[in-house]
């Protein structure tokens, strides 16, 4: 979806944002977007690591069950 915007569309979006928020609010807005992206990325990393840990625990449990059955 975003790859279809193109350069003219991106410029139009930037002009609209500049008009809506003004030049004094743009740095503040940029920081807020940056913090949001940082939090999103760290949460995604945390979920992936938890998923890997869960998969490792399940794999260990399966191995123990196989040994118990044998």
Automatic annotation (TrEMBL):
**Membrane: is it a keyword of this entry?**
yes
Q: Which UniProt keywords apply?
A: Cell membrane, Membrane, Protein transport, Translocation, Transmembrane, Transmembrane helix, Transport
What topology does the record note for this protein and the membrane?
Single-pass membrane protein
- Pfam families given for it? TatA_B_E (PF02416)
The portions of this protein that span the membrane are 6-22
Q: What is its main location?
A: membrane
Q: Which InterPro entries match?
A: TatA/B/E, TatA/E
Subcellular location(s) of the protein: Cell membrane
What PANTHER family does the entry give? SEC-INDEPENDENT PROTEIN TRANSLOCASE PROTEIN TATA (PTHR42982:SF1)
* Quaternary data: Forms a complex with TatC.
Q: Say which family it is in.
A: Belongs to the TatA/E family.
Quote the function comment for this protein: Part of the twin-arginine translocation (Tat) system that transports large folded proteins containing a characteristic twin-arginine motif in their signal peptide across membranes. TatA could form the protein-conducting channel of the Tat system.
Q: What is this protein called?
A: Sec-independent protein translocase protein TatA
The record lists the lineage as: Bacteria, Bacillati, Bacillota, Bacilli, Bacillales
């Amino acid at each position: 979806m975003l790859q279809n915007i193109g350069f003219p569309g991106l410029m139009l979006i930037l002009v609209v944002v500049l008009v809506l928020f003004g030049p004094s609010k743009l740095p503040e807005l940029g920081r807020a977007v940056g913090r949001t992206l940082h939090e999103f990325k760290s949460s995604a990393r945390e979920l992936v690591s938890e998923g890997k840990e869960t998969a490792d625990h399940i794999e260990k449990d399966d191995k123990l069950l196989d040994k118990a059955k044998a």
